[in-house]
């Protein structure tokens, strides 16, 4: 039986779940939630997730939200022996650190810089861009001579980070000053299972949404 996934395709957190499921060859039943239409506030959805956020999964009656928690759960339940979330405590801690960096630092800095421009018609704030560049610099240092974000194997840390980095790239923010990120980004795009379907399609949806919102502000 397929796992139900409630999602918005352009969302980076939703794309993390799609990437993780693809890497584990898990079948998903996709349920699109139109956030702009308020579908997340429907009584049925609120019963599943009172925080009314996407992504949300339902696996045989078990509801769970927060993309990184979902990804850990999927590997723990369906990826026994997978290197996506290693069992060695130190290796797993490094994956967790990268996931927490994405959740608490990188993605919020991008949102803080870019979303006010798209959703609030605010001018670009150079100070916020400077802060985003600073945390991209941290990621560039983390990658260093490593093949992937947390070592020599593809993990859910890479899938989480690539969902964010591809969104930053799609927003037109240059990665040219971060050679390690650029190298790693190209590697993950070519090695993450079913990358184009799991992440590429969502990036196209994100670009289309941004174009629509920008067009409205220019009228």
UniProtKB/TrEMBL annotation:
Which InterPro entries does the UniProt entry name for this protein? Glutathione-S-Trfase_C-like (IPR010987), Glutathione-S-Trfase_C_sf (IPR036282), Glutathione_S-Trfase (IPR040079), Glutathione_S-Trfase_N (IPR004045), GST_C (IPR004046), Thioredoxin-like_sf (IPR036249)
What SUPFAM superfamilies does UniProt report for this protein, alphabetically? GST C-terminal domain-like, Thioredoxin-like
The GST N-terminal domain, residue ranges:
1-82
The UniProt record lists the GST C-terminal domain at 88-213
Q: Which Gene3D superfamilies did the record assign?
A: 1.20.1050.10, Glutaredoxin
Tell me the subunit arrangement. Answer: Homodimer.
Family from the record:
Belongs to the GST superfamily.
Protein's name according to its UniProt entry:
Glutathione S-transferase
Q: Which organism is it from?
A: Plutella xylostella (Diamondback moth)
Q: What is the lineage of its organism?
A: Eukaryota, Metazoa, Ecdysozoa, Arthropoda, Hexapoda
């Amino acid at each position: 039986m397929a796992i139900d996934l409630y999602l918005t395709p352009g969302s980076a957190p939703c794309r993390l779940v799609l990437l993780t499921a693809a890497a584990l060859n898990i079948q998903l039943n996709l349920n699109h939630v139109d956030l702009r239409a308020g579908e997340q506030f429907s009584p049925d959805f609120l019963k599943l997730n009172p925080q009314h956020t996407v992504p949300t999964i339902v696996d045989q009656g078990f509801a769970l939200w927060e993309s990184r928690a979902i990804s850990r759960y999927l590997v723990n339940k369906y990826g026994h022996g997978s290197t996506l979330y290693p069992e060695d405590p130190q290796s797993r801690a490094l994956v967790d650190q990268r996931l927490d960096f994405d959740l608490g630092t990188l993605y919020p800095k991008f949102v803080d810089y870019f979303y006010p421009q798209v959703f609030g018609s605010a001018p670009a704030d150079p100070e916020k861009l400077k802060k985003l560049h600073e945390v991209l610099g941290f990621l560039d240092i983390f990658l260093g001579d490593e093949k992937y974000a947390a070592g020599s194997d593809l993990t859910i840390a890479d899938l989480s980070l690539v969902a964010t980095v591809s969104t930053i790239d799609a927003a037109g923010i240059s990665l040219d000053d971060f050679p390690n990120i650029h190298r790693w980004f190209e590697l993950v795009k070519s090695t993450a299972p079913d990358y184009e379907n799991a992440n590429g399609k969502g990036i196209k949806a994100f670009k289309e949404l941004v174009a629509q919102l920008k067009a409205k502000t220019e009228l």
